Structure formats: C-alpha cells, structure tokens
Amino acid sequence: MKYLKAFFILFSIAIVLIIVCNVWVSQETEQYIFTNSQTVASRPTGLVLGTSKRVRDGNENLFFKYRIAAAAQLFQEGKIKHLILSGDNSSRYYNEPSDMKNALMLLGIPENAMTLDYAGQNTFQSVVRCHQLYNRDSVIVISQAFHGARAVFIARHYKFPFIAYAAQDVPWQASIQTRFREYLARPKAILDIYLLQKEETVFDNESE
C-alpha cells in the first residue's frame, strides 16, 4: 500500500509538470505563431521541420503534405526567399530533407532556393543548427502550430528571433499519437535547454 501511494504521488507530480510545461510553451510563444500568411512578416528564410512523407500503413502523411504546402505558399507569396529543409537522414533508406526537396520542386520551388540539413534529427537540432551552422537569424519556422510553438520556444530561449507559420492542422483522428508525443516533447525540450544545456551537442551525425 505504501508503494502504491508513493507511485500515485509521483504520477500526479509528473502529470502536473507535463501540464505546466505545455501551458508554459503555449503562453510564451502565442504571439509568435501566425496562422494567416497575410499577417506574417516577411523573413529571408523559412525553416521547414521534417517528418516522414508516409505513415506506417503506407498512406500519405498529412503532416508532411501540409508543411510542404505551407512552405510553398510562403515562398510563392514572397514571404521568404530561401528554405532550409531540416530533418532526419539517419540511414541511406530514410531521408526527410530530400523528400521535402522533391515535393517542393513538384510545387515549383527552384532547387537553388533550398538548403538541405541532413542532421536535423529532432526539433532542437533543427532550430539550433539553423541559427548556429547556417547563420540564419531572421527565420519563419514552418510546421503545424503545436510543433512550431515548441520550435519557437527553443529559439527564443537562445535569443534567436524566430517566428512560426502554422501549416494546416491534421484532423484529431489522424493525429492522436503525434499530439500525445507533443505533450511529452515539450517537457523534454525544457529539460534539454534548462538542465541538460544541449546546445553544444547538435553538430554531430552529419549524413548524406
């Protein structure tokens, strides 16, 4: 009984911490997340955060589709001049940056307007590498709103003046798993930047 009580207390504390971290990220970044392309300020660079182009059953990943559409839209409206496509390329068979480039070229984005970051294996790495490795300061992060908020939270912690443009959201029934992961990803992001101070470790694992 004693152990059950201790477990319940620890579990309750963990739930509270997760909620606090999620609210913190949302409140800190709300003013930097834009859902209308007409109201987002023009910036030289768009940072597209990678994801798989297919889901496990082989169907099209709507997160990928909508991020690509949002990136193409901002480029064609003149809101951005260049795109950094940052994603996972941890094996020869999996290459998010190249998949994004190919999809954007089909939408008319010229190849020379894109830089591929093959070592953006997570949001933290994508954000820090965009600023530190590619020397981009004035950036629009392009992803779904909940994801863009975490990216902007990380960026603003390091004084990178990033903003985010929210790609079309994916219906709940097709995104429950992703949204659940995001609830846990926000506390991890806070842990990374405030306790683990991972900024110095992001320049490993270059691929392609």
UniProtKB/TrEMBL annotation:
<dbReference type="Pfam" id="PF02698">
    <property type="entry name" value="DUF218"/>
</dbReference>
<keyword id="KW-0472">Membrane</keyword>
<dbReference type="InterPro" id="IPR051599">
    <property type="entry name" value="Cell_Envelope_Assoc"/>
</dbReference>
<keyword id="KW-1133">Transmembrane helix</keyword>
<dbReference type="GO" id="GO:0005886">
    <property type="term" value="C:plasma membrane"/>
</dbReference>
<feature type="domain" description="DUF218">
    <location>
        <begin position="48"/>
        <end position="183"/>
    </location>
</feature>
<keyword id="KW-0812">Transmembrane</keyword>
<protein>
    <submittedName>
        <fullName>ElyC/SanA/YdcF family protein</fullName>
    </submittedName>
</protein>
<feature type="transmembrane region" description="Helical">
    <location>
        <begin position="7"/>
        <end position="25"/>
    </location>
</feature>
<dbReference type="InterPro" id="IPR003848">
    <property type="entry name" value="DUF218"/>
</dbReference>
